[in-house]
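User: Hey, quick favor. My workstation is busy. Could you predict this chain's structure for me?
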Amino acid sequence: MFYRPQDGHGLPHNPFNAIVTPRPIGWISTRDTDGVNNLAPYSFFNAIAYTPPQVMFSSTGAKPDHDTSKDSVNNIRETGVFCVNVVEYAARDAMNASSATLAKEVDEFAHAGLEAVECDTIACARVGGAPASLECKLTQIVQLPGASNWLVLGEVTGVHMRDDCIVNGRFDISTFQPLTRLGYRDYSRVTEVFEIIRPDD
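Assistant: No problem, here it is.
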């Protein structure tokens, strides 16, 4: 099968998200200028550089109470900071609850029953008990082609790792099983890890 996106795929559901999988989930926490915390999961997310450490996520679509974006992008645009929280399998229900479309004055931490812990390097909350959290300062927001598509890039200014996730000096993802996004309504968790040595190592 071959299709051109502009012509449509002819399938019951869009296959694009199912092709680019698995995708890590960036659980993005922000705070608006009135002090209201926000938390939302984004599967268009990844780390993009080592030195300095940098991450990105993209937001698609807009909310009725914003003209061109969602709460996360709007808050970051106003404050210049955000935090990326790692989602473990055990937090799948809370993550899903935080994805609900809620009014901008609603705190998703409270809605999902999560502890909001103050970050160290930025004025923002992070998810208490998360395997890891990356405190970030905004470097740029890029408007992508299409309606309400925004790419957010940030530099990591602080890193939190849960103590039980550090094994023999390494951040061990097998201790918490990262949740990943597949296509459609499907998710997966990382349960198997193997090592491959590069030719130059």
